[in-house]
Each structure stands twice: as C-alpha cells, then as structure tokens.
Amino acid sequence: MLTVLIDTLPLGTGHAARGIGSYTRNLLAQLEAMDDIRVVRSSDESQTSSIDVVHYPFFDLFFDTLPLVRSAKTVVTIHDVIPLKYPEFYKAGIKGNLRFKKQVLALKSVAAVITDSESSKRDIMSLLGVPEKKIHVIYLAPNPALEPQTEYAVGKVRKKYGIPKQYLLYVGDINYNKNIPQLIKTLKYLPENIHLVCVGKNFFPQEITEWQWVEQQLALSDVADRVHFLTNILVDAKDELSALYSGAIAYIQPSLYEGFGLPVLEAMRCKVPVISSNRSSLPEVAGEHALLVEPTAESFAQSVEEIIQWSKTKRTQWVSAASTWQKSFTWQKTAEETKAIYQKVAR
C-alpha cells in the first residue's frame, strides 16, 4: 500500500484560518477516508518510517517551507505566486530574497508540483522556471458545510451584527491583490441604503499599509458608516457564514489576482449571485456563472445595479445554475486527482 506523509505545518500556524488551512484540512479528510492509501501526518512522528511520497501542501516563496534534502519523492502544492506578480507591494527584504533562492533550488528536485488553476500554472512556469510537464492543475472545492439559510436564520445573524437588509458581501484578506479600496469605493456609486459587509480576521485598525489604504478609501468615499467589518467569524462558524452569504444582494470578489478564489464557489453554494473581477484564475473558477468585470468600483457598482433590477425568476434561475456549476468542484475529486499524482510519482 502506498504511504504518503503530509506536512501538516499549515494547520498549526496563521494559515489555519486561510485557504491554505482549508485545503490541507479537506484534502487530509478525504485521503484518510480512502482504503488504498496510508496517510501519515507529519505531526505524528512515530509513524514516519517507510514513506513512499512526501507532500508539502504549501510553498512559501520567502520562508523555508521546502527542505533542500528529502528522504522520499516529493510533491509540493504552490497555490499562487502573487508576491512575484506584484513585487513592489510584497517586499521580501535581504533575508527573504536569500530564502527565495533556496526555495527555488529545493523546487528543482521535486517530483511534481500541484497548483490550483491554469492561471497559476502559467505563472509558476514563467516566474519560477518549473517545467510544464512537472505541473498538475487540480481544482479546489467549496466548504461542504456551507448551505443556503432561511430568511429567519439570515435575520438572526443580521440582528446580531447590526447589518441592514440590503448589503454586499466580501470574505477574505486585505492584501494588495484583494483590491479592497475599489470594493469600498463601490458604495459611492450605489444608493445609501446599500451597505458592505467584509468578513476577515484582518479588518481591524493596525499599523500596516493595507489598513491605511482601507481607512483612506473610507474617508475619500465618505462611506465609513456603511461598511461593517466582521473579524470574529471563525472558520468553524459555518451557520453564521452561510447566513451572511445567503442574505447578501451579491457576493463581490474584487481581486486583481487569485490563485483560485474559494469564496466564489462558496457564494454559489449558498445561492447568492457573484460579481467577480475578470482577472487571473477567477474566470476559470466562475465559468459563466458570475458577472465578470474589470476590477474597478464603477464596474462593480454597475453589476450590483444590474442584479437589483433582476426579476425574482431571473435571480432564482441564475443562482440555481451557479449552484449546479459549483457541485462539479468537490474535495473527493481533489483528493482522487491528488492520489493519482502520488501514484505516478511513486512509480
């Protein structure tokens, strides 16, 4: 039987609450349920003998996450190379650049690279020099615990957090590529009764440039009283997150770049229309089931106005088709395709 060691380091760091943590948890759960593969977690040191393949589910460009010397054939997942796309906003420093060189060197001897999208694959080839034959695109999947909620459940969560009936939703971080200032500016072009709810642990006053951009845009657009920052919706608060998705006018993914963009599928799963920028992997993930636009406030606002004008029938048909589309992305499928890479590498 094939024995695979999976590095579970991302589950014990700040990545646990991000997409990397979600990927590692869901992939592990599916692989461990299979009877033709033995999965060993790196945290279980007593079981680390006779390993056929080692899988590192996360690759940091500027930190030592991939050892130079490894005792087994290695698979590594590179979710994206965003810092290399926007180097002026992701400064590595001298130590970071040295570690980057070491990471690239370690990458040369891996047996296979897994990535989340064709968009990321192209960038890994061009910016990290990995040969195309080594890179395998395996799509992620939405959180299976998220489900459409009743009006009562939505109302309960809205009341708890002081959110009005008409709101747009964003779930994620505040990094440069997330394009949050343009998302906030969107409200400037919409009726005053429409608010914006931002869910993410970094939406709080802090001494970083990204937060300064947020505060500047709130002031410039004069919409501070229409934006709600929710920082304490935990990863396992499935019902609350489901209700926030379900009650929104639309979910907006404003990003300039995404390696994948899980919230797009999660919104579809909760039957809410999606507005997304037309950049990087997002058209791949959304298919024809999101309003794909330029990543500007004006374009997002135009799409919101369009959705508001939809009849109840059109909205129902749209979210139903999108819900069917997202069902083609499952963690079981992700795990099956990942296992096939392990088997190929072991051979």
Count structural domains.
2
* Spatial gap, N to C terminus: 12 Å
What would you give as the CATH superfamily of the largest domain? Glycogen Phosphorylase B
- Helix and strand succession? EHEEEHHEHEHEHEHEHEHEHEHHH
Q: Which whole number gives the mean pLDDT?
A: 94
Shape: globular
The strand order across the widest sheet is 2-1-3-4-5-6
Largest sheet: 6 strands, parallel
Unreliable spans are none
Briefly note the structural class of the backbone. alpha/beta
- Would you give the CATH topology of the largest domain? Rossmann fold
Number of helices in the DSSP assignment? 13
CATH class assignment of the largest domain: Alpha Beta
Strand runs, count: 12
CATH architecture of the largest domain: 3-Layer(aba) Sandwich
The helix content is: 40-55%
Radius of gyration: 21 Å
